[in-house]
Design a protein that fits this description.
homodimer; alpha/beta; Dihydrodipicolinate Reductase, domain 2; Alpha-Beta Plaits; ten-stranded mixed β-sheet; 16 strands; homoserine dehydrogenase activity (chains A, B); methionine biosynthesis (chains A, B); ACT_dom (chains A, B); threonine biosynthesis (chains A, B); HDH_CS (chains A, B)
């Protein structure tokens, strides 16, 4: 490796939360191993965080302390690779990214919001100045899925990527299924156990999954990251009864991020879905993440692992740092950033698929006729249908699954169901993902 | 990407079997996509195979034909990246590798025997001359597991790697389980269906898995590939009765390649094992491959996909070609080749684990006492034990699983069982992998 003899990676780490401290620990613990794998020494020069006095379980006294994170990328800092673990799509994270990449300094980040929102701008800048830009930790924690898509599967035209990308949601859905509990009860418990944030909106409303899915769509299809036009539903409205029916029908409910090539174009969406219990992704339980990629040459590959936490996320950050050390570059978002196409997403009403619909209706003569008439008129063909429950509380459930149809027809059907006198509450609809 | 404007990858492809033809097809089909992902054009200049007249389903007329594969790497060939798909640990594949790497020309191969046997020599040479050396397709087909270990998880001290690495064996074991058939019957059928070779030794005796496991051990632990000292057992002796008992005990039998850090050192071995049915790896069916990696930071990650075939293997080869195009280098075998340690494997008799033992015995008084006495004297502690079957054929089965013990004790136990008058045939032993 004679050509690398004079190389050295000199890190500036911005953000010293769990992941930042984890990165520091790994670099201190595995110094020799990391140098061997990098082909050159990897050292921390400077760190930055909001609160200097906080005990992070690591000794930071050997490193320069910088109050303003952006200063890590200033000329005098001596840093040649910035690791950004601050978070947030704007503010200091964005300022630091622009400063580092503008100066041709490498930038490694775990920040999905930043890449999903400003990824194109940053990649264009990085490719202009020749600065490395890496973000493995932004999606699916410790699973090297960014690398797999950008590099390992680069010889494929990607057909689809489907992922369980948020451990909090999968943990909640798993407990709802196993313990028969309601969403609110599991959420409360998950918050007490530290599996969910005090403000859980970002996770449970699918926003976190949407950021990750937007990044996967860019890598898979060479389109600009487009978080603005990404239809996003979370898991707040998943009821125990739907989990029960899913089980009875041979499915399990998972929050999925999906991006796929269709006849209409590229469809990218985040929503809870019914997946067949025999599918690999259906058997991913608790906080584990999983990604299923279909490519035209490779067929289906599946990746599973911890989606969050100190070790897994720090592992992904280290992978990026070592990539930069080895001199791996190439197009930052899979293809040259200036050639990224507008995302031009297929509206979700054009989605073709099969559906699960649950209605609560009055148990009275003629109900089934009313319902099947609407379905027939909207050209929605029934695959299976069952009626269940006593009418003691004045209503019974009708549950049906459809043959393949277009979502616009399902939406029209649901609208009409809502106006039927016999239908007692807003119908529930879940997409089925094969 | 201004610095890459003058770069171009000019390929010479040696070996035009299924995979070689697959690589040619992908390059022709995805020319623009590949150039975008590579950051530079990728072209085929020359090809080589034994039989020029054979129809391979691709038009090769635009490429130079070279009769002697080694000529692809000669000065006048114009080739700057050789793709070797000939196979075999020596012969033309090795000659071509030495020639290409010696001249500083990149070398991409799907050849597990070559890397498992001569990997160190070739990596040392590549690092001296600066030539890229890549072998993603050598292990687990389309699954980018080499990249994951060498790069994505490079920040981890690897604890263990376990894999289902041979699709033929997993296909046979799956059918034995699902259809209750004997090994020989399934093998015959698999040969007719093209899932097994006419001479299946390489697959079913574990040699193919051993080559792949040797490579994984090198990447995981920085040791020299050492196929010579790798204990290897195949699946020839797996009986339907063991598959039945496995099921009853909550296990499934899989042929595993395992390499793991233990208190004694690094243990690397290939053998059929009982894996708990809830483990991810137990649910990998048919010709699918899977690899489970445990790292000290990332925890457990799992990778699944097609382990062989035109598309998946060509996908892996393309990933390597694009890696070379993007200029990714770094230590060829994960750490600088001159720093690889001798493999110094822990002998399998020192393996600590739990075991499954099946005996056929005379159904007579005192048998259980004889058997439990031996176990007690060899310090093998019983976890579960069951006796099954009628004595109509003069024997019954005794099946037991052990608590954790050292393999030497199990071996001594089995030796002593064999000498017992009541034991009717050589005992069967399978390691249990948690």
């Amino acid at each position: 490796m004679s050509k690398q003899d004079d190389r050295k990676i000199i890190l500036g780490i911005a953000g010293l939360g769990t992941v930042g401290a984890g990165v520091v620990k790994i670099i201190e613990k595995h110094k020799a191993l990391i140098a061997a794998r990098a082909g050159c020494p990897v050292e921390i020069k400077a760190v930055s965080a909001r609160d200097r006095s906080r005990d992070r379980g690591v000794d930071l006294s050997a490193y320069d302390w910088v109050d303003n994170a952006v200063d890590l990328a200033e000329e005098g800092s001596g840093v040649n690779l910035v690791v950004e673990l601050i978070g947030g799509s704007d503010g200091p994270a964005l300022a630091l990214a622009r400063k580092a990449l503008g100066r041709g300094i490498g930038f490694v980040t775990a920040n999905k919001a930043l890449i999903a929102t400003h990824g194109k701008e940053l990649a264009v800048l990085a490719e202009e100045t020749g600065a490395p830009l890496k973000f493995e930790a932004a999606v699916a924690g410790g699973i090297p899925i960014i690398k797999a898509l950008r590099e390992g599967l680069a010889g494929n035209a990607i057909e689809s990527v489907r992922g369980i990308l948020n451990g909090t949601c999968n943990y909640i859905l798993t407990r709802m299924e196993h313990e028969g509990l309601a969403f609110d009860d599991v959420l409360k418990d998950a918050q007490q156990l530290g599996y969910a944030e005090a403000d859980p909106t970002f996770d449970i409303d699918g926003i976190d999954t949407a950021h990750k899915t937007a990044i996967l769509a860019t890598l898979a299809f060479g389109t600009e990251p487009d978080i603005e036009n990404l239809p996003t539903e979370g898991i707040r409205n998943i009821a125990p009864v739907d989990i029960e029916y899913a089980k009875e029908l041979g499915y399990r409910i998972k929050l999925l991020g999906v991006t796929q090539q269709t006849a209409e174009g590229i469809e990218t969406r985040v929503h809870p879905a019914m997946v067949p219990t025999r599918a690999a992704i259906a058997n991913v339980m608790g906080p584990t993440n999983a990604v299923v990629v279909n490519g035209d040459a490779v067929g289906q590959t599946v990746y599973e692992g911890a989606g969050a936490g100190e070790g897994p996320t720090a592992s992904a950050v280290m992978g990026d740092i070592l990539d930069v050390a080895r001199g791996a570059e190439g197009p930052r978002l899979g293809v040259p950033a200036t050639s990224l196409k507008p995302s031009n997403p297929v509206p979700v009403v054009k989605h073709r698929g099969t559906y699960y619909i649950r209605l609560r209706v009055n148990d009275q003569p003629g109900v089934m006729a009313d319902i099947t008439k609407v379905l027939a008129e909207e050209n929605v063909s029934i695959e299976s249908m069952l009626q269940r429950g006593s009418a003691s509380d004045g209503g019974v459930y009708i549950v049906l699954t459809t043959h393949e149809t277009v979502e616009a027809s399902v939406a029209a059907t649901l609208d009409r169901f809502t106006t039927l006198q016999c239908v007692l509450e807003t119908p529930t609809m879940l997409r089925i993902e094969a």
